[in-house]
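Q: Can someone sanity-check these two? First one:
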Amino acid sequence: MTLKHCKLTFHQKSQQSQQKAYASEDLALCSKEFPTLKENDIVEIATTDDSSSSFLLKVTKGSLRDDFTPKDTISIDQAIGTAFQLKPYIDVTLTKVDAVCVELDSVELTFKDQYLGRSEMWRLKNSLTNSCVYHKKKIEFCSSTIRCQVHELWSGGLVVTSGLVTEATKIVFRSLTSMVYLFIQMSSEMWEFDICGDLYFEKAVNGFLSKLFKKWKSNGSNHEVTIVLFSRLYYEASSLERFPEAMRECLLTDYKGRFYEDFYRVVVQNEKYEDWRNTLISLRQVFVDYREYLLNFHQRKFPNIKVPKAYVSSAAQGNFLEVLNMSLNVFEKHFVDRSFDRTGQLSVVITPGVGVFEVDRDLTNVTMQRIIDNGVGSDLVCVGEQPLHAVPLLKFHNKATHHDVDDYSMPHWINLSFYSSNKQVGYATFVPRIKLPSLSDSSRETISVFSPQWRNPLASIHLGDESGWPNSVYDFDSYDDSIFKPSSSQLASKQRRIKHMKRPKTLVDSDFSRIFMRQNSEPEIHATTSTDMYSSTTSIATGSSSLILSSSTQPSSAITIPSKIRFRKSDNVYSSSFGALNIEPGSFSSVKPRVALTPINDRWIKEGTASGATKERHEGSSPSMSSHGGSPKELDFKGRFGNLRRPSRSLINPFDPSHAVIKLTSNRRRWTHIFPRGPSGTFIQQHHFSTGLNKLDIVPEGEATTAIGNTMNDGTHSLSRQSIKDSPDGSTRTKKVTRLWGATGEQEWTPALTTGVDWKSLTIPACLPLTTDYFPDERSLKTDYLVSDYSLLPDDVNADYISQRAIYRRPLTTKEVFFELVSQRLAQGFQTVIRPKHEKPPIKQQSSFLRLNILGIDDETEEYFLSIGRIFHQISLSSSTITVTRYRPRHPYPAIKVYYKYRFYAPNNNNFEVSYADFSTEKLENYNWNYLDHYICTRGDTDFALTENLKYWRFRMFILPINQVVLKRLMGEGVSPECNIYEPLKLEEKRSHIQEFLKFIETCINRIRRPNTSIPKGPRGASGGSVSSMGSGSFRERVNSNQLPDRPRIRSGSKLAEKQRHESASGRISPLDSPLDSKIFSLSGNLGEPFPDLTPLTFPPRTENTTEGELVPIMCLKADATFKDIVIAMRNQATGLSFIKVTGLELHPWTFVSYDAIMWLINRMEGVSTDSKAMEIFDGMLNERFIIHASGDSSHKFKNGFYIYYISNSDIEGMEPLIPHHDNGMLHNEWMEVDVPCECELNIDSVTKNSLLNFDCSSGNHKWKDVYVDVDTSRKSDRQEWGHIRYQSLFKPDEAFEITVQWIQATGSIITDLVQAWSRKAQQCNLQLVPVPTDPFALPNYSSDPLRGPIKLTIDSLTEGDAGDSSLTPSEVMYFQHTVALKFGFVRCAPHAPAALFHALKPNDLHYVHSSGNMFLIVPICQSVADVCFLWSWNYLVSKRWRISSNPALGDDTFMFKVLHDFKSFCANENNRLTNFWNSTVMNPQSPDVDETLLDSSLTSVPASETL
């Protein structure tokens, strides 16, 4: 109803929030002027001018204002007025509307340049529930760390401008910055011409790609793109012996025994360009000699050996599924090297074909399940003409030799597009959609419908017969008329069948036929609904014979296909299937229905019964059980040729797949909710449109059809079929089935259906939807699934773990744990199941999501149902108990692994190298959810450490020094043309790097704040530690800490301690300070008793400020001072050591850092001038228990670096003894402790010929530690979050230091802010934090990235001149390569790759990263002079986000290619640079001697006494 006409004004939502109380609301109005409005009402605001703009807003509590002074005026947010182009003070009408009428069906949100996990999507969706949104509305979440914009709104099948988001609204997230792989199939058709006279390559690149890049630019998309050209080459050879030995390493054979090789050339890798026109030019340049290069690839390598002739395969015979699996090998590891700049994954295959591919069945099974499980979008773009049959179409390889049968699949998991140019053909307006092959002599014979030629029925016509198939039941003329006329082909087909119907005659042994029922397309669903839908018997008679069609009394939901089949006597006929994941029958049961052929007047008609031929199994049911619960019958029919076995698959006509109906499954509905519903209620794909009159509708929920293919009462065809079945209890339930063809399963395919390009999917690809609508019925859950459950009691679990922690953190409540269990499953690819309200949940629950306890208990139970594949979880919360019920299939899929080898051409490389990959499905049912749930419940306790099988997120980084002097020479004024100008670090530089690194660890990771001064600048610096006044105490506090008044110390775990804990803003509670402070210190800031062994320093006088501001001379300990004297001096408030004021961590108040103590002692004690001497003294104090490691572990040695120790109270007058924790692991999980080398080690050059060879990258040379980290220190998130850091235990100033952030309970955007804050702090410390891949080089390995590889740089000059000395040893060559790497600015790093990759890495290979962070280098072990080389790789994780002012080279392409070009020139010995450097290093008599006895055992194959 219309409430009032009023004026419209605007207010700023954020800038004036302090001036106006309503400024945080979308709508503000006077409550007295609108007395009928109340909170949560929906109002429509419409303009009264010609623009007729209207939008919806929700009335909140803050919208109704008593202090809103303007009369007859309402105020809205300025952003809303801008979005609808409204002007202030215009007349508007305010109308109250019913919320049900304005509910939204789906909302599409877009986001850019950020990582948005599925957990964040779900929480964002929940925050939008019961709110109004409008087109282009900007949405912020988690304190504005997540930003989205409304892209499209759907309601009632129409696009609207605003509406109300409800719990039933589907939220679709689309990313403008995804990882996109563009695969261009360079098949033989690429060099052919289309109907417009263009090469298909020109049509693909100049046409489709050019238009795609323009759409990216116009929509603001900035995807990270990899472009790969791929081809398959066949060789004309009958045996392997015809190939050279070196050529056989990558040869493969197909099912026909033909030899082939697959080639992949990466043109663009992980690039983000604003202008892609240069890429189009590069593609054209590669195309010029691409085919010639491939065909003569081996001939160039073996010029004197005859190589079999090669030819490029057609598109249908190409490596289509292999490229999809290659991208899946990358996408399925999305949690490793997690990029913060992008979200979403998309594979696009551009082919000159028509969407038909010949594939292997096992590889199809693997591909389908991997795509569905990983939620990866897969698009197929065909630049060929759309055929008249349904596509995409996968033709399975026929590996049998005794018969010729085509077996197909129609993959619903591929989004198909057809690109056609806008060129007009002048001579005709008819566009052909099929190529007619020329008729050969062999085609004069009659051909079986089950043979490959059936795809072209015209080829089966006798050329001399004018009538053409006179006895055929198919009227081809009428069929053609139905195609090209705007009338329904199904109606015409039905009318023709009715005309030919006759009364069936009695079956005899020599004259009968049976029908075969179709099965579903997914092999895991060998079942149909056993509904008594109809019963009919039909006979089609033509000529002298008739074809009998008979249906059983209880057929399945499949549909009969009347056909008259003509066979040659030599034919062996088998039925075939379109199963996308059809497991071979032998893998389940050896019992198969049999079918024989009976001769009828030189014609062969199939024998069998409809009931016997269509026995199908339920999903996951026992092999011995049919869909009716009995055993499948084995039917024997004997003909003159004996028995033939019929597999449990039936042929489906690709020219008429509209009647193929399959059972509804979770896989089939996984992506359905990204599609909007059209006006008829059907999920629609907007790039599919029909030129005929067929209208597609969907059956409303709860309704069902009485026969497959029947027309509904309103004349439309039902797409969401539901068959009615009587349950055992007598009630009627429905079972959903769906169509075989199409991504939605609700759209009927007809020859009049035209497919365009799905530009939305290619421009702003959608993420996997959060919801689905499939859940097995109760009977299926009981018979086909294994059920297991467990319960969680978070309160009881946390009560046990709180007492064991070094730092108190508020435990998660039961409600928080419950929602986190749902959130974690969504993050791992699960979807919440939206179930109809009238449907009964399993396990006798009362409703799907909320159930009130019917026993009268004053609590409520919440439930969530989630699914992925055939795995379902039910999570319920009742009072303080969480119950997790898991359903997994009784008969899971068989494990399939496909090994694959190919030739790969990396960017900036000059050759195809052999590489390997394996494709396999993941056993999702083996995921340890019980372990993860306890990890969440205990807040990441050390008892539940993160393991690889949990698939946690991680981000690897290196801490590198910044050499600004060299960078200015390479990039600034007076640019140096050569890049080998880096020099080793000097001693003072190494000291500075250590001090800056420790400062970074203190402030960023451990969050300790130094009140006045920083870490001492050296062993003889101005100060030996941080000195502060009495007011602040000689302590350093952790950031965001709150101090409590002095109180007696309370032990952890006591009841009193639990009552007195208070959480600070950072999540860490204040320390429980000891009363010792007042006992020890006097008002002057000195100790209460005099220092007997302290005398003024004999050094130049230095002074420090005390509390009163007076100057006090620095006191120095004598060389013979006792340990007790040192302790008393350390505790001196004025000149003592700087202590850590612990926040939340229950440690002794006199806690200090070992590096601080060493520097303090060097400056305070006579005779102590080195850190080694200071460590000896502290080791003695540790043995005498004057100091103890903070964990209380007395066996812990004193180490130099950031290690925490405290002064023990024993034997110190006036101090009470303290009982240590004796829990070593407790503190190590809370503080980051790192070793640093002593100064004596810094003076010694550790880089020698032998030390290089004694480094094992897979052994314990680099030890790793883990520490707990609070990632959300600013409390931006709507939940409690945490993470972990894995780091190296030793920091060396001349090597890279690795830090890896790991998380499973954190928001991606908050992790981004945390890491960026670290990066800014590192820059202040003259360091840089650089992201690095876990596997930078992707060496040929079954577990590495199949589409990345290193650049091989050879050193040819080692075989010539002075550098070609024949007495070279491995150590000398590696030392030379090491020095070359250092001169070009590379520093050593540790290869922290997963264990699966270590067998691809030789244990003594040397790994380097460039000091700019842009490049990586490997010096491999060489077996001969010819093998001496470098392996080069780019850091593809560096983006604009990581560029800093102090290192302009980071991410600069010009700098990166300059270094590579100069490195290649150096290795090529241009201007004798390599030779001169060789003579100055290896041949230098001052070079360190080689101790051959220290060579690593891994080099036993190359003894040191031997030469290269």
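And here is the second, same format, sequence then tokens:
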Amino acid sequence: MTQRGPAEFTPPPECPVFEPTWEEFADPFAFINKIRPIAEKTGICKVRPPPEWQPPFACDVERLHFTPRIQRLNELEAQTRVKLNFLDQIAKFWDLQGCTLKIPHVERKILDLYQLNKLVADEGGFDVVCRERRWTKIAMTMGFAPGKAVGSHLRAHYERVLYPYNLFQSGANLLCLQKQSLDDVNGKDKEYKPHDLLQRQNIHFQPSDTSAPARRAKRMKAESDCVKSEGGEVCDNRLNLRRRMGSFVAKPEPEREIPIQVKQEPVEVKVPNPEPEKSKSRYKKNFPPPPVSIVDLYVCLVCGKGNDEERLLLCDGCDDSYHTFCLIPPLTDVPKGDWRCPKCLAQECSKPQEAFGFEQAHRDYSLKAFGDMADSFKSDYFNMPVHMVPTELVEKEFWRLVGTIEEDVTVEYGADIASKEFGSGFPIKGGKFKVAPHDEKYLNCGWNLNKMAMMTPSVLTHVTADICGMTLPWLYVGMCFSSFCWHIEDHWSYSINYLHWGEPKTWYGAPGFAAEQLEAVMKKLAPELFESQPDLLHQLVTIMNPNTLMAHGVPIYRTNQCAGEFVITFPRAYHSGFNQGFNFAEAVNFCTVDWMPLGRQCVDHYRLLHRYCVFSHDEMVCNMAMKADSLDVVLASAVQKDMQLMIREERELRDKVRKMGVVQCELFEYDLLADDERQCVKCRTTCYLSALTCPCRPGVQVCLHHAHKLCSCPISNYTLNYRFTLDDLYPMMNAVRQRAESYDEWASRVTEVMEAKLDKKRNVTVFRSLLEESGEKSFPENDLLRQLRLVTQDAEKCSSVAQQLLNGKRQTRYRTGGGKSLNQLSVEEMRSFVRQLYNLPCSLTQAPLLKELLNSIEDFQQHSEKLLSDEVSADSVSEIESLLEEGSQFDVFLPELPQLRDRLEQARWLAGVRQAEDLVTNPCGLSLDNMRRLIDRGVGLTPHPSTERTMARLQELLTISEELEEKAQSLLKARPPESLEMLCSQLTQVEGVPAYLPNCLLLQDTVNMAKQWLQEADNLQVGVRIPLLGSISDMVLRAHAIPVQLEPLKQLEVLVSEVQSWKELATKTFLIKNSPFTLLEVLCPRWEVSSSSKKKMRKVKGECVSSGKKKLVKLDSMSDVERALSDSKDSASAMFTLAEVRLKELESLCSLRAANESKLLPAADCGALKVCVCQKPPMGAMLQCELCRDAFHSVCVRDSTNRRDSKAWLCPSCLRSTKPPLDKILSLLASLQRIRVRLPEGDALRYMIERTVSWQRRAREVIDSYDLSLTSQDCRGALPTQSHWTTGHNRKLSPSRCQDWSVSGQEQSVFYTEQRCIPLQGLSAELEELMVEGLLLQVSLPETQQLYRLLLSGPLTIKTPHTEHTPYLTQKHSSPQRERTKTITSAEKKAKRRMNREYTEIRDRGIKPKSKKQRMSTEKTRERKAASVSASDVSQSEDSEEEMTFCPAESCLQPEGEEVYWVQCDCCNRWFHMMCVGVSAELAAEEDYMCVTCSTTNTGRRK
């Protein structure tokens, strides 16, 4: 039968769990006494020993055999058992009526008949409910939905099943309802199978090897044709009576086979009834009436008539006869089963109900066999390995099974196994278990349950008898769901349980102060059980759901006891529980001093319940009193108080008995009798001090509380048996008092100082003296001593902490439940600490000082709170720092300090932001790194609206800046580059952003450079001047570095490419293969002809001379020349520069030729000469260069390509190019002009072409002036005339024409020349200069060969030209006043005019031109003069060069010194001493100079 599903079980709160240290664990009673104030509030507690404490398991497993108890879970719960009892009574009632009870269904749920019956009774009974129509209310109370006519169904079921039973219980002469009322079920109801307790108790089944020890079954049996939910039916099944346990034996009944129904799910299944239907005809046999009047024996006891024999029923119990129509109500048919008459029915139902108890199992188990069975049951039940089943699941399932009627789960529990017989789980001395040496410590350990109950602190040591389960441990072997019901320990003692191994044991406990409340709740919820068994809770057979008790206000606590853990229950603490699986536990009782008053209360309670005592409390107290000298002082004090109560009560009882008339007294030693032989016949209390006996009842006695209950004899016949007289008891009490007085006096003083108030408090030294006294007198450890020690320790600790706080030191304090920890006190803790100082029982000098410190801290907190409540400001940094400095002086944890530190960080951060944004201190603005750094710092700050706003602004600025930077960087790195418009549009977005953006600045610079470059490109395109290659290349390089799309760049790159192609073509045209010269070096005049024995005139400040107003340029190297050409603004300037280089070339070459000619004079020492590229003396066949006139070994230059007689031979240094023809060079120049780009090589090429053309014209004039006729007549072996040839030394230039060098003055000479050279003797300077310049040209001209052949053939006759050319190399007879202006080429004139214009520009701009003075070192002048003198007898060219060092002034002063200053005429280009012409250095630098001759000539022309 089911009811509404119970709510899911809610676990109660956990009980305290203690984990003692080794020091605390050493003394179990001291530790239990220590934790008692906490643990007794919950009734139970759990103790976890130190991990290293692991005693060996000493039980004899092989010998351990036990017979467990059988537990059917739903019979344990009180409310469930009440329902089962009620259903059994109903079933028995209907069974005696020949019907089988079937439980009806309503709304597809089995009807709760017990609840229905109770609700109807509460409403006033069947008649009242029907009359007031309360069935709908009852249906709703039972949980049925309204509006479905459930009330009418409930009424029909009640009237059919319960109403007859209630009428019978009320005493009405009701036999049964009509047959049709019970049979009208149509197979829809569920058959109720009674429990038949008596049958299970007395009928023994043979155990089957295959049957499981526990099973799940339904208590209801469904019919196969059950469809609807109404109706009932009576069948002929016999009743199963519920069993009872104990020594009660039920009346034997014939055995019948009892089917066991096993179901797994709560569905209705038809279970066939193996018992055949028993039909018994109740009619008299239909035979003819006997002739004898035997029929008169069968008459109806109601009407007294014997007629209608076919309607006459015969009782199966007493054989009385009743007419069916005489019964109330009348029966229409004969019942099929056994039928009882109303008389027999009353007799059967009036039998007293047997007490409920556990049935013993029918087999004996070993520990291993029980474990296998237990594990198999649990794994099969939960369908998973036992170790994987959660404890929470087992707990909820247990309470579900306990509260259901439908499911029957049976388990077995090996409880209360005597350890004396099979051995304890702990090792004991002299036991069969051999203890290893390292485990011997467990033999005497206080937590060994064999030792604990009988240790000195336990008062049970004074109980003389061994009490199994109380002073001797009991063993418990559990399986899943096996349980122990609600109970308290005997005599309300302590108990301790140790789980040796196995799965956990779940405990529930209620504190001792709630014991009566728990008993009242259980009696209220199950009063029927307590009516028959007042001491039901002492039988350990009843359990109730903790949730139910908690719902009625009973405090319940729980815990899971695991292997190796202790569970301690405290006095009068109700506890229950169940096992999670197979395990092995051991338990024992013990009593401490604090239990003594409770023990006496328990004996009084037992007397009211008529429950026997396990031991005599009075006997135990007297035994302790007789050992007063050896008693502990605390125990002596407790015994003395207990004896006072005992003696006063005994005196009153004896006085009462004496007044009743008992006069006979007799000493009787009750301690010699067994406990069961000296029990009070009325209350079953164990008698010790006294008892009453009567001769009429030998061996029977009563306690003095029940003196009237002994017998009916006169009181005078009673005898008072006593163990001690009152005079004997007083000395015993006085001895105990004397033992306790010293302690009491000390305790009173301790109590006095502990309870002192205000100014009466004593100093802590008084507490120390009392503590020392307790040690000296060996007072036992008790609550008072512990309290004194604790107060003293607290006072000393508080004093130390207070002093440390005053000294500003960090203190050490202890927290509850933990060890030492170094922490600062909080303000609240300090406030509490100050209160604690004033609340201590003793006075401390540090208390007022600490109070002042607390006031200072509170002032600091108020100031801090005010500051923290204000808005965060960057200006509050100093104020916060001062507060932090003040707060750090307090050695107290101040919650404001972290907040102040956070506020300080916030203020500093805001100050940093403001400083970073300040343009005065940071002109560049806020950079991205600073923003990120500030944001990173801000992220770690405590959130605050001010910082959050600033953070949001910075984050937004950073986001915008990063986007702008990223965009700018992408624009700068874009390939191909973006347009200038795109970059400019991006820059417009940057405007107004208050941040330093390097990429954006770089983008701005890029835009500026791009604009500047485009402007320069536009200037190149619109300018009148041809751009230089260097400028274009530089612009291209700059454009490549500018990441902007520049339209003119491609044109410039094409232009540069064309120029490079032109240069490559020119290089191929001019340069010899593997030539060491560059193209520019080949095309430019030779400035590096010689570096030794040269006489140079230096202008002022070391600059070269220029004839105009041109800026002076230094031309000492090829790089200087290239730089000058590159820096020239136009071609005219470049031509002028090249003209300057040409002058230096001719000058240098003249000196070189003179020096080389002087080396080869016949008078020279040939061995000391260094000639040729090998720099060795001349020897053997030699070659002489026509240009530099140096000699070379034929062997060294044998492979020269120009060793032909038709051409002038040039040395490798003088042969610089391939000398292409002029037309090819002209095409190169034309291609360059088409490109329209100036470059140094182009200017040099143009100058070379002009020079070539000029030279070609002059050469043609010379060739054309040659007198062929004169040449043919006079040249036939004639020597040159004096007028045309300059006399010189005779040299043999060739073996055929001249005297050989080997036969000259130096007879030892061993070299000769292989080729003919142009003879210099008699050769005019003009022709020599012309030939030299022709050889210098890097162009192949026919005039060069013609002139060479003419000069090689002999002296020439030259017609006087209209324009006389001034020779570059003057002779001595040459006039210094000869004008040289006519010899200046057109290019030189243009260059000079260009310089004049530039000079004018410079002057107009205010820039002072450089001086035209030329300094010439006199030392160098002397060197040149010496070189000239040494070579004067060799060549006239040396003399002509020397003439250039003389001033042409008419009255030359011939100045001497380290430096001589010169000035050049701007018309004739002649040089004068500045001293000789009267010109100062300032005037020469600022104005043009014109010599006297040029001034006269210009004046005459103007006229």
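A (reply): Looked at the second one. The two ends are 160 Å apart (CA to CA). The mean pLDDT is 75.
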